[in-house]
Amino acid sequence: MACYPCNPTPHLPPGTEIIEPSIHHRRRGYHIFSGVPLLNCDDWGIVVLEPPTDLEQFVEDAALIHEFLNARGHHVRQITRSGMGAALVQFSDVVACDTAIDRSPFFVGDSILRVIHQNRGLNFGNCTFTHDVWLMMMNYPLQAWHVEKNRESVSEFGRFIVWNHDGSNRAHILDKIRVPDILEIPISHVLCENTDDQGHGQSWTVVNYILQSTLLGDASGDEDHLPPHGGNPHPFPNLPFGGIWNDATPEHDFAAPGQDDVAPAA
Question: Under DSSP, is residue 53 helix (H, G, I), strand (E, B) or coil?
Fold first, then answer.
């Protein structure tokens, strides 16, 4: 997990506002993707302008970025707002994106324009999966005996690998999962379903038993430590974020709320 400043205010839908988290809010949570592969977005890049530009001029910045990159043969298909730079840019193809990244940085008057991979912004971090685990979930609800529901039920703490389906014994489900931290597997595991629009629901508590674990690699990834004394890991920025060059400063990277999310093509 990466800790970094974040300013959501310019992105709020009209008439909405942020409800500040209390000290009792959970500060870190996980969801582990599995099943359907993630989308291939290799034709997208984040554009960072240094020094950061004014909050109100996204449309002007987008037009400058579009004209500048197209003039140098890095053909742009679409430009939208980004929370990690001046803009999020979709190039005409992956080659155009990779070439722009490789030739970056560019000098635009007194400014520096950098292009980085869309999946290597300041929210990126490495995650090491340390163990393969055989997990037995006792008293798993029968109505959830489906591979996709099974996959969902472990996604908070592990990547679903395989269900050892045994229809002759429905007292438990036996899964093989891959986990970043074996200590995050709960003993008591509550599965919930929302049943109507009035907020009613139902839950089933299963008991998790680890039957076998196999060590895979390193003990942990490159996660940032949570701030002390219950601090917010994503505070509203007051000063430019002191990260490496591709860590955009979000406090300067937003347009005024209410403007179109996609800039018109130049």
Answer: coil
